[in-house]
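Model: You mentioned two targets. I'll fold them one after the other.
Researcher: Yes, keep them separate.
Model: Target one:
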Amino acid sequence: MDISSSTQAETAMARILALACPETPAPAATQAVLGFPTEAGLSSGQFAAGLNAALRQGEVLWQLYDIVVVALGPAVVVKVDSATSLDSDGISNLAYINEHMPQLPAPKVLGALTCGQRSYFFMTRGRGVTLEAAWPDISTEGKRDVQAQLTQVFADLRQSPRPRSGQGQGPQQHAITAPLGSFVMGLCKDTRHIQRVSNAHDPLCDEEALNDFLVKAPPRRSTPTSIRMLRPVMRDDHDIVMTHADLHPRNITVEWVDNASDASNASTGPARRCKITSILDWEMAGWYPAYWEFVKAMCNASPRGPLSDWPEYLPTDAIGLWPVEYALDSLIGRWLG
């Protein structure tokens, strides 16, 4: 979709960024995904050309298959995916965090749009680099400091109360809590080599239902006796807490700061420290049992390579240490392959 003049392309690009990155994001999560705009005298082809020009000038931060994250300057990034693969949970979850936990270090939702076969999700950019990139250069003392920062972040996250979604019937009329899973859509995601997603029309309202879902065989597969034997020993009474569910150094951005000039830290210790600036990728987040954060972090950890010591620095003072639940989950993971 070429256009005849560079001026038109620049105008289109400026209009795209103005529409996709408003100063005040739409408050309703359902308004986060916008239709592709053609106002201001620009055709859809001109918009596409302007957007492509912006992407070509950007910096590719991350890529996996058809998904690309591109920086459009120091303050804005766009996640590009196929329109059919757009995970609206990633948008609505982050919008929920922005609204209910504004103090949390997380990107701000700026907007999203679709054009043809592609979707574009715009958000603010975390300063610095990923913790994964910085990890080999951080000392043991520095890693303990990062752990302490994560402990504070995840302790704050878990303080948020699970919302009520309605009022029960009958003489008791107990308040009904929101279903487990993502904050807005109520979808539970169990991601391993395959990803299983709960039925949106049959939400999982408590841990008992979640456990039944976890041991249920996916299509065209049966549940072996060994897995059925696990269900009676799986607890149904963990606290349900706000969970990121993808805690990994690749999903954390950090920057090096002068210790003496960092108001959040006493001017003792090393001259420079690695400060967390943002927690990324909220697609898997939601209301889950208290053990979920730890177990999913352990499942994503690598026993070899530069991140082999990452499990030693998980913020277990906030998220807990759950060896039994991890062992049970590992057995389910072996079954699913």
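Model: Target two:
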Amino acid sequence: MSREPDATHLLAMARPASLDRGSRVSADDMLIMAATEAPAEPTHRPSRPRRGLSTALRFTAVATAVAVATVVLVRSTDTELATPAPLSARTVLLAAAERIETANPATGRYWHTTGQSMAVGGWGQGPVGGPTPKIVNFRVTCTHEVWMARSERDPSWLVVTAQSGKPLTKADEETWRQQGAYRFGGCEGAGGAPIVGGAALPAPPFATRLDDKLHPDVSYPQVGAVHVTTEEVMDLPADPAKLKEVLQEWTRRGGYRVTEESLFTQAAGLLSQLPTTPHVRAALYRTLAGLSSVKNIGTVKDPLGRVGTGIELSGCERQLIIDGASGGLLAVQERRSPDCTAEPTAWTALTASGWTDASPALPKTLMRNGR
């Protein structure tokens, strides 16, 4: 004898299959059953209130089952949407190019940058004529300004306003103290920053001339370890294909092999230190976007704690950190680690850059190319 399914029976059918072994009744099946399971002719006619209560319970149970099924589906969909795929390095770089291209194109007498740099190095000191001294590994940090003259008639300067160094390990510190606990000199970084080094450097503040026509191999500016002129930098094309050709020609001029690493290094130096127009900086980003070995490593902090997007060359030796809002370069980092876990061995973080007609305020201690 057939009978109406009561509310308890319907709720049991609404139980998800994953919770009830052997149960395979879906919410749709339950709706069909509720609609087609007609009651047999009753032996007596129930009162009207009881029929109304039975019908209300039946539809309440069905609605509950549908609601349960709907909630499960919505939650599953929300979970999938919460983990979008990360942007490619190409997408990040092209977006940065669009933003930086709108920067103020004004020029001036000097391209002025301020920032901080760090580098790991080695130095040994001993008596003249004695045995070769043991090398002390150390880390040196400096705060600096670069005044890059637009005209080669004006001198270009590196001004070091603060500098400090310390041995890397306890063993290095012990050797250093045995050698006389000398002051660690130097101001070095990454991304083509000007370099001065050696324990004989004066205490800061001091300034050194960057342009040296008598010794062009150590003169500034340099792009990827190749000496170039300020005029060549200012005349760089804004077309990415033509720009790439010029950078490759500079690499060959220096006697080096053209690789994606050489292009990445050149772009890092031009973006971080040298006077280029907004359109050329955008073209540099677009050139990097065309490299197959760049990757987006996501949101990172630069050495000064600022948040940006990390763009890394495969092998993790070289990394750019780009500001998401302006598209400007925050920092350049280098590391030598096969598993990409070691601390950076060199970095340069920019705090300001732009054109000015002002002249550099030079300290009393002046040097010429670190000598």
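Researcher: Noted. Anything on target two?
Model: Residues 7-81 form one domain.
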